[in-house]
Write a structure and sequence with these properties.
This protein is an alpha/beta fold. The protein has 24 helices and 18 strands. A 9-stranded mixed beta sheet has the order 4-3-5-2-6-1-7-8-9, sandwiched between helices. Strands 14-18-15 form a 3-stranded antiparallel beta sheet. The chain has a two-stranded parallel ribbon with strand order 10-11. A hairpin with a 2-residue loop joins strand 16 and strand 17. The protein is rod-shaped, with a radius of gyration of 48 Å. The protein starts with 26 loop residues before the first helix and ends with a strand. The N terminus and C terminus are likely disordered.
Length: 839
C-alpha cells in the first residue's frame, strides 16, 4: 500500500501495473484505460484544489481559536525525545529546523504547507483561551513574514520572546505557534507538532509535556502520527503506549518508523521492525510508514540528495515490501487529512453552533458590560425601564406581558401582584370580621365553647356584667336609665383591641409579597449580582422606608380608634335599631311564653289567651332596674358602632396604608429617575462587576468572537462542499440494482430543516450514448452520473463537466444514503459504493 490506498473515499483511481506476459488489451479495454487516465488527471486536479480550500478553512478555525472550545480535524506528530520527529518534519516540509534551538519543544507548533508561485513563510501566534484581553491583543499583533527560509529560526525566536518563553527550565506555554510555509513544490498539508515525550528530567517539565500530548492524543478528531525510532526497542517507547491508551482500536493512528538504516541488515532487530511496519505486531488501521532520514554525516546534504538516498535505501533489502518514502507519505497524509476533514466538518459545524449558543446564554446571564460608571448607570437605566413597565402592569392587574406566564403555574401566580394583594386584603377583611372583636355575645350558655384567643364567647348576661362597672365608674350627670357617651368609646376600645395584631400581620404579609415580586420582576431584567446589589444598596432601604411609613400610617389609624366615638354613617342608627328590635323580640317572646304557661296552669287551661291578657303581658315592665336598662342600651350602641367602625377601618387599611404607602406606586422604587439620583458610590456598589466576573466575561467574549468567526468559516466551507441539489444517473445495465434502490419508494424526504429532496426522473441521459432510462436524484439542479456510463471524451468536455469534478458516493448500514463532499444525504434508500460525475 505504498503507492495507493484502499480507502473508498479516495478521489484518485490508480491502475495496477500489467504483469509481464499478459495478452494485449482489447480496444474496449484501451478505451476504458483512456477514460480512467482522463478521470485520474481530473481527480488529481480536484484533490489539490479542494484540499487546499478545506485545509485553509480549518486553519482559519484555528486562527480564530475555535480549537480551544471545539476539537478540529488535525494531524498531530507525537514521539519520544530523539525519536527523529524533527527529521520527519524536515522531510515533509523541506525546512531545516535547527534542532539545537529546540524549536518545537516548548509549545505546540502548527505547520501549514501551501502551494504558491513563490517561496515565503509567515509566523503568528494563536493565544490560549486563558489569556486576558491585553495579552491576546499583544500576541495577536505579532506577525512576521520572510522570503528566505533560512531566516525562520530568528523569526521564531522573536515569537518566543513575545510569548514570554526563554530556553530555561520549565519554560512551556499553552499558546500555539503557527507557521505557514508556501512554495511551488510544497504539499497541501497541515500538521501540529508537539513537544517530545520526556523519560527523565524535571518533574514539572515531564508533567506539562505529558498533559499537553495527552490532550491532543485523546481528542477523537486527532489523527495521531506516532513516530518511533529504530535505534531503540519500540516496546520501550512511550508514544506507542500513549497511542494505544488514547486510541485502543488504532482507528486514527498512523505509525512512522525512523532511522531504519541504523539496523543491521538481516538482524533480528531489523526483522522485528519490518514486521512492525507490516502491521503484524502493533496493529493500526491506518498502518505504518517508514522513512530514512539524514544521519549526522549527511546533515549538510540537500533535500534532493536526501530523497535520492532514501529511494536507494528502500529499493533493496527487507524494506522493499512496506510503505516507505517521503513522497508517498506526503500524498498519504494529504488524502488522509482531506477525507478526515470532509467526514468531520458537518459535526464540527454543529458543535460550534451548540457551543456558541451556550456561550451566548452565559453572556446573557452576565448582562451588558459594566466596567465604567457610565456603563454601570446605563445598565441600571435600561433595567429600570423594563422593570417599571412590568411592575406597573402587575400593580394595575394587566397581565398581558409574557412575563406573567399562566395563572395555573405557581411562578405565574406569584408574578400577578394585584391578584396577590387582593387575596391578602380579602383574607384580612375576613379575619377582622371573625377574629377582630374581643367578645362574641351568644344567646345561650350552652353555645359557649372553649377556645384560645379572640373572640371570647359570653352570654348577654355576662356582657352586662362587663359593662356595669364601666357604667358605674364613668357616671356623670346623666339621668337614671341613660349612660355617659364616653362609655361607648371605652367599650369600643376594649372590643377592638385585637385589631392591631391582625393588621400588623397583614402588613408584613403584603411586605413579603412585594419583596418576592420585586425579585421575580428583576430576574430577567438584570444579572444576578446586580439584583443582589440593588437589594442590598437600594431596594431593601427603599422598601424598609415604605414599610416604616405604612406602619406610621397604621399607627395613626389605631390612635384614631382611641378617640371619642364619632360617626355620621346612617348604618349606625340602623344597626342600633336592629339590635334593639332583636332584643325586644326576644323579650316579647319570653313574656308571651310565660303567659301561655300561666294560662295552662289555671283552671281555664283549655282556653286561649284573650287580647286583653296578651296586651297586659306585653305592657308589663320587662326591665325593672334602671341600671340594667342603661347597660343594655350602652351595649347595643357599642355593638352597632363597632360594626360600622371595623368596616371603615378595613377600608382605610387597604386604601391609606397598603395602597398609598406600599403598593400604589411600587414601580417608582426602581425607576429611571431613581437611577439618575443615585450617587457614583451607590452605582458602583450596585452594578460594579466582581473581578472574577470581569475575567469570566472577557473569557466568554473572546470565546464568542472565536466561535462566531469559526461558525462563519464552517458555514462557508459547508456551502463550498455541499451539493444542495444534484442529479444522479445510471444506465439500464444497473436495472437490477435500481429495483431495490428506487427513490420513488423513499418519497419526499424534504423537511423544514432544509434536507435534500430526492425525485425520480424517467428521462434519457443526454450524455449516455445508449440512451437508457435513468434514475435521477435532484438536489439543486446538478446532475450526477456514474463514471462507468460516461465516455472519457465526454468527461473532458468543458460544456459537459465545466468543473472537472467527480465525487464518491458510498453508504453504510448504519447511515443509508450517499455522501457528497463528505456530507450525509438524508435518503431513505442506499447506494452501492461507486464514483459519480457531476454533469
Amino acid at each position: 500500500m505504498a503507492d495507493s490506498f484502499s480507502d473508498t473515499n479516495s478521489l484518485v483511481a490508480i491502475d495496477a501495473p500489467t504483469p509481464a506476459g499478459t495478452p494485449p488489451p482489447s480496444p474496449g479495454r484501451d478505451r476504458e484505460r483512456d477514460r480512467k487516465t482522463v478521470v485520474t488527471r481530473t481527480l488529481n486536479s480536484l484533490q489539490s484544489e479542494e484540499q487546499l480550500k478545506l485545509l485553509n478553512e480549518i486553519d482559519k478555525l484555528r486562527s480564530h481559536g475555535v480549537n480551544d472550545f471545539v476539537s478540529l480535524p488535525q494531524l498531530v506528530v507525537c514521539g519520544d525525545q530523539s525519536s527523529g520527529k524533527s527529521s520527519v518534519l524536515e522531510a515533509i516540509t523541506e525546512i531545516p529546523f535547527p534542532r539545537r534551538d529546540n524549536l518545537c519543544t516548548r509549545f505546540a507548533t502548527q505547520i501549514m504547507l501551501r502551494r504558491s508561485p513563490t517561496t515565503h513563510a509567515r509566523v503568528k501566534i494563536i493565544p490560549d483561551s486563558g489569556r486576558n484581553s491585553a495579552d491576546r491583543a499583544k500576541l495577536e499583533a505579532f506577525t512576521g513574514e520572510i522570503k528566505k527560509l533560512e531566516e525562520l529560526p530568528d523569526l521564531v525566536e522573536d515569537a518566543k520572546a513575545v510569548m514570554g518563553i526563554d530556553d530555561g527550565e520549565g519554560a512551556f506555554c499553552k499558546d500555539t505557534l503557527s507557521i505557514e510555509i508556501s512554495g511551488p513544490d510544497k504539499p497541501v498539508l497541515t500538521i501540529v507538532d508537539l513537544p517530545g515525550l520526556i523519560h527523565m528530567g524535571n518533574k514539572n517539565d515531564v508533567e506539562i509535556v505529558s498533559d499537553l500530548v495527552h490532550r491532543y492524543m485523546t481528542d477523537q478528531r486527532t489523527i495521531i502520527l506516532a513516530v518511533v525510532t529504530a535505534k531503540n526497542d519500540y516496546a520501550n517507547q512511550i508514544v506507542l503506549k500513549r497511542a494505544k491508551e488514547a486510541d485502543p482500536e488504532g482507528s486514527r493512528t498512523l505509525g512512522i518508523i525512523t532511522k531504519p538504516d541504523t539496523l543491521s541488515a538481516g538482524s533480528a532487530s531489523e526483522s522485528d521492525f519490518v514486521n512492525l511496519a507490516k502491521n503484524k505486531d502493533i496493529f493500526f488501521k491506518l498502518g505504518w510508514h517508514v522513512l530514512r532520514n539524514r544521519n549526522y554525516e549527511e546533515r549538510d546534504c540537500s533535500f534532493e540528495e536526501r530523497h535520492r538516498l532514501e529511494r536507494e535505501f528502500f529499493s533493496r533489502g527487507a524494506w522493499r515490501g512496506v510503505d516507505n518514502g517521503i513522497e508517498s507519505l506526503r500524498s498519504r497524509l494529504s488524502v488522509l487529512l482531506l477525507n478526515h476533514i470532509k467526514r468531520e466538518l458537518p459535526r464540527v459545524h454543529q458543535e460550534i453552533v451548540a457551543a456558541l449558543r451556550e456561550c451566548e446564554a452565559e453572556l446573557e446571564l452576565l448582562g451588558t458590560r459594566r466596567t465604567t460608571p457610565e456603563e454601570q448607570r446605563m445598565v441600571l437605566l435600561r433595567a429600570s425601564e423594563v422593570f417599571g413597565g412590568l411592575c406597573k402592569s402587575a400593580v394595575e392587574g394587566t397581565y398581558e406581558h409574557m412575563f406573567f406566564g399562566l395563572t395555573q403555574e405557581h411562578e405565574g401566580s406569584q408574578k400577578r401582584l394585584r391578584a396577590q394583594v387582593q387575596a391578602l386584603g380579602a383574607d384580612f377583611a375576613k379575619k377582622m370580621r371573625l377574629k377582630g372583636h374581643t367578645r362574641q355575645i351568644v344567646e345561650h350558655e350552652e353555645d359557649i365553647t372553649s377556645q384560645n384567643g379572640y373572640p371570647q364567647a359570653i352570654t348577654r348576661a355576662q356582657a352586662m356584667e362587663w359593662v356595669r362597672p364601666l357604667l358605674l365608674g364613668g357616671r356623670g350627670r346623666e339621668l337614671p336609665g341613660t349612660f355617659n357617651p364616653l362609655l361607648i368609646s371605652e367599650l369600643f376600645w376594649e372590643q377592638s383591641k385585637g385589631w392591631e395584631a391582625i393588621t400588623r400581620r397583614h402588613l408584613k404579609k403584603v411586605y413579603r409579597k412585594l419583596n418576592g415580586f420585586l425579585r421575580l420582576a428583576l430576574v430577567g431584567v438584570a444579572p444576578p449580582d446586580v439584583i443582589e446589589g440593588l437589594f442590598a444598596n437600594h431596594i431593601d432601604q427603599e422598601m424598609a422606608e415604605r414599610f416604616q411609613r405604612a406602619n406610621k400610617e397604621l399607627e395613626g389609624l389605631l390612635n384614631d380608634r382611641r378617640r371619642h366615638a364619632i360617626t355620621y354613617n346612617h348604618y349606625y342608627t340602623e344597626n342600633v335599631q336592629k339590635i334593639r328590635d332583636r332584643r325586644l323580640k326576644e323579650q316579647y317572646e319570653a313574656v308571651i311564653e310565660a303567659a301561655l304557661q300561666q294560662q295552662n296552669k289555671s283552671s281555664n287551661s283549655g282556653a286561649a289567651l284573650t287580647k286583653a291578657q296578651l296586651m297586659q303581658a306585653i305592657s308589663t315592665p320587662t326591665e325593672a332596674s334602671m341600671e340594667d336598662y342603661a347597660c343594655q342600651e350602652a351595649l347595643d350602641s357599642m355593638l352597632a358602632f363597632y360594626k360600622v367602625a371595623y368596616k371603615t377601618f378595613v377600608d382605610n387599611v387597604a386604601t391609606i396604608v397598603v395602597e398609598r404607602r406600599l403598593v400604589g406606586d411600587l414601580w417608582e422604587i426602581f425607576s429611571p429617575l431613581s437611577v439618575v439620583r443615585m450617587s457614583y458610590e451607590t452605582i458602583a456598589a450596585v452594578c460594579e462587576e466582581a473581578p472574577e466576573d470581569q475575567k469570566r466575561r472577557d473569557r466568554l467574549e473572546n470565546k464568542r468572537i472565536s466561535l462566531a468567526g469559526g461558525l462563519e468559516v464552517t458555514g462557508r466551507a459547508l456551502r463550498g462542499v455541499k451539493c444542495d441539489r444534484s442529479t444522479l444517473h445510471h444506465d439500464s445495465d444497473d436495472s437490477d440494482d435500481s429495483d431495490a434502490e428506487d427513490p420513488a419508494d423513499a418519497g419526499d424526504d424534504s423537511d423544514e430543516e432544509g434536507e435534500e429532496c430526492y425525485e425520480e426522473d424517467e428521462e434519457s441521459s443526454s450524455i449516455n450514448s445508449r440512451k437508457a432510462a435513468a434514475t435521477t436524484i435532484t438536489t439543486s439542479g446538478y446532475s450526477w452520473s456514474p463514471l462507468s456510463t460516461v465516455p472519457a471524451q465526454e468527461i473532458a468536455k468543458p460544456e459537459v463537466n465545466p468543473f472537472n469534478r467527480a465525487f464518491p458516493v458510498e453508504s453504510t448500514a448504519s447511515s443509508p444514503g450517499g455522501s457528497f463532499f463528505g456530507n450525509p444525504m438524508q435518503a431513505a434508500y442506499s447506494f452501492s459504493p461507486r464514483m459519480w460525475l457531476r454533469v
